[in-house]
Specification:
The protein has 16 helices and 12 strands. The protein has 384 residues and is α/β, with parallel strands linked by helices. The chain has 2 domains: 6-131, Rossmann fold (3-Layer(aba) Sandwich), CATH 3.40.50.300; 154-375, Arc Repressor Mutant, subunit A. The strands form 2 sheets. Strands 6-8-7-9-10-11-12 form a 7-stranded mixed β-sheet. The protein has a 5-stranded parallel β-sheet with strand order 2-3-4-1-5. α5 (89-99) crosses α6. It is globular. The chain starts with 5 loop residues before the first helix and ends in a 9-residue tail after the last helix.
Length: 384
Amino acid sequence: MYQRTLEQRIEQYLFRGRVVTLLGARRTGKTTLVKVLLDKYTDKRTRYLNCDLQSVQFALEIQEAEPLKAFIGDQDLVVLDEAQNIKEIGKVLKILVDTYPEMQIIATGSSSFDLVNKTGEPLTGRVFAFKLYPLSLQEIAGSNGYSVIEPQLEHFLRFGLYPAIVPLSNDDAAMQLDELAANYLYKDILAFAGVKRARIITDLVRLLALQVGNEVSYNELAVNLGVDRKTVASYLDLLEQCFVVFRLGAFSRNLRKEVAKSQKVYFYDLGVRNALLQAFAPVSLRTDVGALWENFCIVERLKYADNNGIRANRYFWRTYDQKEIDYIEERDGKLTGFECKWNPTRRMRSPKDFLDTYPGSTINQIDRTNYWRYLIPPVDAPRR
């Protein structure tokens, strides 16, 4: 079992008079992580409640402090797992944290659509929120260095980094991913969010899987799906809130020729993306390795920043005359760009327009030979 980076971060925010929420897609390891946390507090009274159970749902839907405390008991640390199953969970948590601030509550949810929208305003100023992603390279490497990553790197590009998938053989990983992808689409998104047009969601995700690394046109997607642009935008928002995909906007401030309104869409896990297309071929036989590598590098940068509490704005950059940078992080006013190239012999050309327009900015190439510098060690480690 891998130690999750969030474990220590969450511990820093416990017993401070606020609810801790842990959001993430199913099977990213939320239940495992909260049980590890419970086991560490042997000197405290702890309780784990599975909110998938109807008996738990019934008891916690009573919005009165005394009955809630009578059901939970006299506890120091309580986990409400899959808390989005509780009706008006936000009001329930508000009652508990306001009435019993000494009792630490950790509430997990399988998507931000479910839990955040159901807690929302009632918990303003009363919550510390965290997201749990699939495993990061940092977590897999641990203290062993990237020697444990290198033999598995191509496997990660093909089958992703879900905790249960990483140790499996190719055939077993593909089978598990087929089931996981189906749960993404039909359980979390369709059932929980009440979307009835299953075919549209399925077709939309597959179209997005084919366009990784390219700018996405809502109008083009709408035409292909036979729906309006507004429907595409709302479904994309839903997919993002359920941790299937995430969007990058274009960076633009000074140059008239900069593209300003475009977006790119990437997958939180490449295994899910490849399962949607049934594309598990070896890297050497693929025509989409460039897109895979770009998605992989960007999501690993995102995981590292979020897991370690590093705040950054994220963009891509392109001009109308086709000069571009795959990925940009903005931190404390400084811009750091990254070009993602699987083949190290394909050297990048740093856009002079960008460097001249934004003094102090830098651009780095992430390729097959140097990825460890940018995806595994601390983001602020010295560059060579």
